[in-house]
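Sequence, please.
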């Protein structure tokens, strides 16, 4: 089963993606996490991506499609995958559809996590993440320790106010059209109210998937 998670930055795609991945027994693939690891490793892909990410701009489609091609044709995703933030432009949606078609697969579900802008800004501005395992936290400070792996918590560069504003406008201009693209290709986009407690949102997503 292949599930695409759409929604603005801060909507909780990563958290919900992890919970759904555990529940469904398939891996979550977050291109943002793949890129952050590439930056940390100092790889060519990481070097190409870093400046775009720091500003809150999208990394070029060719880089993302390279990652998705590797991932979607690897045994790791043989049973399926949850694609978290991995489809952010119409060319990416087309590229993913093509890659999957080549291996006789397709996107089965598209989930759209909906949250108002004001709440997104508050969420992203108050977020820290573990620099080792990427787990996000609200209400913890940079320098605190991760509950999961003991890693150090940091504020992401792209969670600074100016980058947040840029990411939201990039979402409106480049990612929102992906919703229409899926609908136009005959896919039902399942809209999830992503406000409220984490487990309430998960319950809505599970119900929408009929899982
Ligand atoms: P995220 O962790 O999903 O918030 O992604 C962090 C940043 O990584 C984004 O602001 C982009 O710069 C980059 N990124 C992640 N996924 C993609 C994608 N599918 N297309 C373009 N850029 C991406």
């Amino acid at each position: 089963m292949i599930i695409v998670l759409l929604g603005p930055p801060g909507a909780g795609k990563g958290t919900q993606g992890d919970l759904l991945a555990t529940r469904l027994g398939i891996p979550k693939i977050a291109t943002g996490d793949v890129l952050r690891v590439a930056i940390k490793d100092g790889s060519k892909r990481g070097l190409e991506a870093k400046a775009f990410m720091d500003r809150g701009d999208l990394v070029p489609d060719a880089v993302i499609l390279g990652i998705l091609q590797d991932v979607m044709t690897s045994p790791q995703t043989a049973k399926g995958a949850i694609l978290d933030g991995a489809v952010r432009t119409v060319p990416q949606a087309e590229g993913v559809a093509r890659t999957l078609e080549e291996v006789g697969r397709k996107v089965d579900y598209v989930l759209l996590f909906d949250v108002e802008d004001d709440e997104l800004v508050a969420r992203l501005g108050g977020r820290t993440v573990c620099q080792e395992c990427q787990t996000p936290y609200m209400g913890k400070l940079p320098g605190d320790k991760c509950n999961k792996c003991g890693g150090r918590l940091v504020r992401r560069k792209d969670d600074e106010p100016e980058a947040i504003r840029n990411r939201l406008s990039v979402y409106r201009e480049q990612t929102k059209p992906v919703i229409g693209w899926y609908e136009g290709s005959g896919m039902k986009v399942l809209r999830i109210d992503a406000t409220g407690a984490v487990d309430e949102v998960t319950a809505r997503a599970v119900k929408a998937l009929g899982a």
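The chain has a mean pLDDT of 94.
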